[in-house]
Design a protein that fits this description.
By secondary structure, the protein is of the alpha/beta class. It has ten helices and 15 strands. α1 crosses α3, α4 packs across α10 and α5 packs across α6. The structure holds adenosine-5'-triphosphate (ATP) and magnesium ion (MG).
Length: 362
């Protein structure tokens, strides 16, 4: 259950209003909204979606470095969509996550106060400069102490995104860490064990671990699709980005005589990402050695560079954990009823925007 601390406006009055999920990264703004009403079986229809480019230097590793330019992008988004209410994702680079426990059925109004005491020992910035949210993990009535996951941000980080929205004429309803939004979209609701989400974007790879629906760990590796293009350019000479994307997605890591140059070049970079993922996985398994149910049972890939051919197989083989490309529509609708308007390849980058949009209706 999410407490909704990052909610700026109390939600009930707005629940029926169209609310757009907005995922802002260093290089792009992606948005998506479902129609406010669901079908009887709970499935959804998409109202609007799209993306805008964020110029270099506006956001740097999640930090707003040019507020004026960000306002300009958000204004463009508002003009294009007519949106007013938005749910925004926050960069995981800036987040602090920790887990704690508290007595089962602690009254709501006491939870925050208790957690404030725990901030000091878990977050390296003064508690008054922190915004935090928490999620109490489901437990049965007999459980004495329940697990609570907490995510904290420097106040300034949230404030800068909030100010940019307001200046652009938007009303932010909530903020949420990017990987948590992605998890809402791609992780099947009845999944057992923990899942590792790997968001392989353009400039970075976000790694998140989700257990019982709660995001418990995040980390970022500074390697993305751009680095794959760079190594290809070194080997193949300068080629347009679209051509390189095609090479990545059709040859990729797959073994074959004529593709060995491509494969070796890509492998030199992707193996570094794999090592980073493996290290985090080991750390997690050490940390949760006492609890078998927390073992990672699946790696779910999303982000545009999840398209790299052969990537799931390579991860499955080297990590020893089944790796799949995520279905970003997993919790929105089934393909039997709906043909998504966003092509599959393109859709991997939309996981966070979809998760945010789902929040406004679930
Ligand atoms: N079919 C495809 N459609 C879109 N992007 C693709 C496709 N195939 C590969 N890519 C690559 O995916 C990357 C974009 O991914 P994504 O949209 O997740 O990034 P981003 O969220 O904008 O960036 P970041 O999270 O790194 O700041 C680019 O490097 C692009 O080349
Ligand atoms: Mg991204």
């Amino acid at each position: 259950m999410l407490s909704g601390l990052f909610r700026i406006v109390p939600p009930p009055t707005y629940l029926t209003m169209p609310c757009v999920g907005v995922d802002i990264s260093d290089t792009s703004l992606k948005y998506l909204a479902f129609k406010p009403t669901a079908f009887e079986d709970g499935t959804r229809e998409i109202d609007t979606w799209g993306d805008l480019t964020i110029p270099t230097g506006v956001i740097t590793r999640g930090e707003v470095t040019d507020l004026k330019q960000l306002v300009a992008v958000l204004k463009e988004f508002k003009e294009k969509t007519g949106a007013e209410f938005v749910r925004l994702s926050l960069p995981e680079e800036k987040a602090y996550l920790f887990e704690t426990t508290m007595k089962n059925n602690t009254p709501h109004k006491e939870v925050r106060g208790l957690l404030e005491f725990k901030l000091e020992e878990n977050v390296p910035i003064p508690p008054r400069e922190v915004f935090f949210d928490y999620s109490i993990m489901t437990a049965d009535a007999k459980t004495v102490n329940v697990e609570v996951s907490v995510v904290a941000y420097p106040r300034q980080t949230i404030q800068s995104y909030y100010d940019a929205c307001v200046e652009a004429g938007l009303r932010p309803i909530s903020f949420e860490i990017e990987a948590q939004a992605m998890a809402r979209a791609v992780i099947p609701r009845n999944m057992s064990g923990a899942a590792m989400l790997v968001d392989f974007g353009k400039t970075r790879t976000g790694i998140g671990i989700v257990y019982k629906g709660a995001l418990l760990y995040t980390s970022t590796v500074d390697i993305g699709g751009e680095q794959l293009s760079q190594v290809l350019r070194k080997e193949l000479g300068d080629k347009p980005e679209a051509e390189l994307t095609k090479i990545k997605n059709t040859i990729g890591l797959v073994k074959g005589k004529e593709s060995s140059v491509v494969r070796d070049a890509l492998m030199s970079t992707i193996s570094v990402v794999k090592d980073e993922v493996a290290t985090r996985m080991q750390y997690w398994h050490l940390r949760s050695a006492a609890d078998d149910s927390r073992r990672i049972t699946a790696v779910v890939l999303c982000g545009g560079s999840a398209n790299l051919k052969g990537r799931p197989d390579y991860f499955t083989e080297t990590l020893g954990v089944p790796t799949i490309r995520g279905n970003v529509w997993e919790n929105a609708f089934s393909f039997e009823e709906t043909v998504p308007p966003i092509g599959r390849r393109y859709s991997f980058g939309y996981a966070a925007a979809i998760g945010l949009a789902l929040k406004s209706i679930i």
